[in-house]
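Example 9 (inverse folding). The structure is encoded as follows.
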C-alpha cells in the first residue's frame, strides 16, 4: 500500500506558506509521489528576502554564545531524528541507506563545527607603526556578517551541502534564503522545521522552491542579497556571476576527478576505496572518481580486483540496508550517461563491466581502452562510470590528471614521498589526497576548486570567512 503524499509548504519568516503553483517530488527508485511542494512565485521570493533582510538587523546582534546554542540544539535534533531524515534522503535522492545515514551523520558534524566556530570569529591587531605615518596609532579589524545569504543547493547532498551553507551563515550572524534543488526539497523543508524548533528567530532561515531560471534568478539579482553560495554546474555558475552584480559569491562547480595508482600502492586499500569512490551515490558526487590512471606494472592485477569487487555490489532499492547502488536522480540523466558510454564504445572503448541501464538505474560501469579526448574523460560524468587508463611514467600520469578544465580534487596512491610532493606541486586542484582518492572530504577542511571548478572555499571556518566582511578600526589617542 502506497503512502498518501504529504503536502509541504514553504518557510517564509516563521510562517509555512502555500503558493499558486506546485511540483511533485517522487521516490527516485519506485517512482511513487511522496510529496507536493509549492513553487515560489515572484511575490513569495520577495517576501522571503524581505523577511531575511528584516531579521538580519536583529540576528546580527545576537551574541556568539546564543548563536552557538541554537546550532548545538539543531545538531541534537538532527541526531534525534537521524533515521527519519536518512530515510527521506533515500527516497527523494535515491541514495543508498549506508550513504544517506552517513550524510546525516556528516551533517550533524557540520552543524557542530558551525556551533564551535560561532565562538571563534575574531579579527587581529595591525602593527600600525610598521608605516611611519601610522606611528602613535592603534589598529585592529573585526569580522562582521555580510547580511542576507542566498544558498542554492544541488540534489546530491540534500542535507549536508545545505548545512555547509546554512551552518556557517547562521554561525556568523547572517540570515538565509535557501533554494534547494526541486528534485530534493523535502529534506531542506524538514531542516527548516528543526531549525525553528531549535530556536532560530523568525526570518533568519527561509526556504523557497522553484526552477533556477525563475526563482533562482529572482534571488540572485535581488539587491538585498549580499552573498550567494552556489553548488552546481559551470554554465549555471557563470550565469550567476554575470547576473549577480556586486555581491560576494562562492561556487563549487564540479570535477572530472582523477586518481593515480603507483606500483608501490597498497592495492588492498586502493581497490576497495576506488570502487566506493566510483559508485557511491551512483557516481553523483562532485568528487567521484571518474578517471583512474593505472601504472602498467599493476594494471592487470588492479583491474581484476576492481572488477571482482564491482561485481559484488548490490543494486536496488536505497532503503534496503545492504544496497550499494541505487537509481540516478532521474531517467533523463541515466539515459544521458548511457549515451556517453555508447559513444565511447563506438569510438573504440571497451566495457569491462556494466554498461546497461534499467530505467533510472545505470549499472556500475568500467571502461578501458579510452582516449584522452573522449567525453567520458574530458567532461564531468556525474554517473556510476569510471574509465581506466594505463601509463608508463609517473610524470605522465600527473600531467594527464592536471590536463583538465576542472580542478577540484585529485588522488594519488604511493608510498614515495617525493612522488607525493611532485603531484602536489604539479596538479592545479583545490585538494590533493595522498593515499586516498579524489572523493575524500571532512567537513572542516577548506574545500573548493580551481580553474572551472569554482570560486572560494567551503569548510565551516573558511565558509565563515567568505560570509563575513572585514571592518578595519584605527584609533588615534
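The amino acid assigned to each position is listed next.
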Amino acid at each position: 500500500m502506497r503512502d498518501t503524499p504529504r503536502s509541504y509548504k514553504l518557510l517564509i519568516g516563521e510562517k509555512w506558506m502555500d503558493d499558486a503553483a506546485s511540483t511533485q517530488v517522487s521516490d527516485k527508485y519506485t517512482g511513487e509521489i511522496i510529496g507536493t511542494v509549492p513553487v515560489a512565485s515572484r511575490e513569495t521570493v520577495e517576501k522571503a528576502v524581505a523577511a531575511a533582510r528584516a531579521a538580519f538587523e536583529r540576528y546580527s546582534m545576537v551574541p556568539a554564545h546564543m548563536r552557538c546554542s541554537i546550532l548545538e540544539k539543531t545538531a541534537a535534533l538532527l541526531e534525534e531524528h537521524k533515521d527519519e531524515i536518512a530515510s527521506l534522503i533515500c527516497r527523494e535522492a535515491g541514495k543508498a541507506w549506508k550513504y544517506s545515514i552517513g550524510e546525516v551523520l556528516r551533517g550533524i558534524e557540520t552543524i557542530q563545527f558551525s556551533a564551535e566556530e560561532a565562538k571563534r570569529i575574531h579579527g587581529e591587531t595591525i602593527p600600525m607603526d610598521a608605516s611611519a605615518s601610522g606611528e602613535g596609532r592603534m589598529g585592529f579589524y573585526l569580522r562582521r556578517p555580510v547580511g542576507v545569504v542566498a544558498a542554492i543547493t544541488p540534489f546530491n547532498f540534500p542535507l549536508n551541502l545545505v548545512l555547509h551553507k546554512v551552518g556557517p551563515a547562521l554561525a556568523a550572524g547572517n540570515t538565509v534564503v535557501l533554494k534547494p534543488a526541486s528534485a530534493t526539497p523535502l529534506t531542506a523543508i524538514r531542516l527548516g522545521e528543526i531549525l525553528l524548533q531549535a530556536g532560530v528567530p523568525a526570518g533568519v532561515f527561509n526556504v523557497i522552491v522553484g526552477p533556477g531560471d525563475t526563482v533562482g534568478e529572482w534571488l540572485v539579482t535581488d539587491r538585498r542579497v549580499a552573498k550567494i553560495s552556489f553548488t552546481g554546474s559551470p554554465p549555471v555558475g557563470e550565469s550567476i556571476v554575470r547576473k549577480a552584480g556586486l555581491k560576494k559569491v562562492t561556487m563549487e562547480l564540479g570535477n572530472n576527478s582523477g586518481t593515480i595508482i603507483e606500483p608501490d600502492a597498497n592495492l588492498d586499500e586502493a581497490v576497495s576505496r576506488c570502487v566506493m569512490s566510483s559508485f557511491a551515490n551512483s557516481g553523483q558526487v562532485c568528487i567521484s572518481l571518474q578517471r583512474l590512471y593505472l601504472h602498467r606494472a599493476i594494471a592487470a592485477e588492479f583491474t581484476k580486483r576492481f572488477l571482482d569487487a564491482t561485481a559484488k555490489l548490490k543494486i536496488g532499492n536505497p532503503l534496503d540496508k545492504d544496497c550499494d547502488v541505487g537509481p540516478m536522480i532521474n531517467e533523463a540523466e541515466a539515459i544521458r550517461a548511457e549515451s556517453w558510454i555508447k559513444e565511447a564504445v563506438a569510438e573504440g572503448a571497451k566495457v569491462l563491466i556494466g554498461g546497461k541501464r534499467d530505467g533510472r538505474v545505470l549499472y556500475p560501469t568500467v571502461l578501458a581502452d579510452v582516449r584522452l579526448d573522449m567525453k567520458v574523460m574530458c567532461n564531468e560524468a556525474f554517473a556510476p562510470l569510471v574509465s581506466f587508463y594505463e601509463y608508463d611514467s609517473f610524470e605522465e600520469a600527473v600531467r594527464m590528471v592536471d590536463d583538465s578544465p576542472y580542478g577540484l580534487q585529485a588522488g594519488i596512491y604511493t608510498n614515495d614521498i617525493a612522488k607525493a610532493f611532485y603531484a602536489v606541486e604539479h596538479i592545479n586542484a583545490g585538494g590533493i589526497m595522498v593515499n586516498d582518492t579524489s572523493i575524500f572530504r571532512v567537513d572542516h577542511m577548506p574545500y573548493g576548486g580551481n580553474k572551472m571548478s569554482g570560486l572560494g572555499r567551503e569548510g565551516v571556518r573558511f565558509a565563515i570567512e567568505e560570509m563575513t566582511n572585514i571592518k578595519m578600526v584605527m584609533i588615534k589617542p
